[in-house]
Description:
By secondary structure, this protein is mostly beta strands. The protein contains two helices and 20 strands.
Amino acid sequence: MPIRPRPHPLPAALALALGLLLAVPARAHLTWLLPVQSHVDGKEATIAFDAAVSEDLFHFERALKLDTVLITGPDGQPRELANRSAARHRESFDLKLVADGSYRISHVSRGVMASWREGEQTRRFRGTPEAFAKEVPADQVLQGITLTHARQQTFVSKERAGQPRFAAEGQGLEVLPLDAASDLSVGDTTRLRLLLDGRPLPGATLKLLREGNRYRYKMGEELLTSDAEGVVTLRWAEAGRYFLGASHGDRPAAAAPGAAPAQAGTRDKPLQRAGLSVTFEVLPR
């Protein structure tokens, strides 16, 4: 008798991250990568970063498991993180800024959600693409499959931020700064180009949220739309730390009990969803 795969439950932090592939609604869980400060001076410049999942923005509730962290230096070359640590409410690491200029830090995670029938029961898988390939036979007929790609980004700088000149990372959603994205003050503006799989994404809706929603009755988010070239402009009217969120892709349609979804991806053409969050720090002028 062939052994059927037993889908493993999705780790809590990854489950929450996949939930953020929707546009950010009020009181949703948010995933974020946050530096303790976005700009430093001096020869021995090291910045610490925290990664977490929370309902109240920038309050540590659950650690975000760091899968793949991509760090790009001012010269466009990769850098290595240091002193990685994991706790219940956050994961953390340090980055030593040797050269002057701007640095890009991205955390990337990928996932698979799939379902199929075994007799009268519906089986589901949620996990990484690697686990899916090992645990779900290639000949298994799926009712639906969705590929997910989540990215958390932030930018820091040493001495001078300048105009960053980063190349696209090329998969999922990401932003390329057209102006300085760190060392920001009230009254500044920052232009970003929103990309999907390395190409500008026009007409996308993004939500900008300032820290402190824990102490407000309303989230106070600002809705923004990327223009025909995928560019969105952020105008910094208040000091604080900010979260910018975006999502793109199809959601499986609801179906009657026991029926296949009306809109379900196949192995050849899976549904694809991407999510993005970016954090910024703005100081008083």
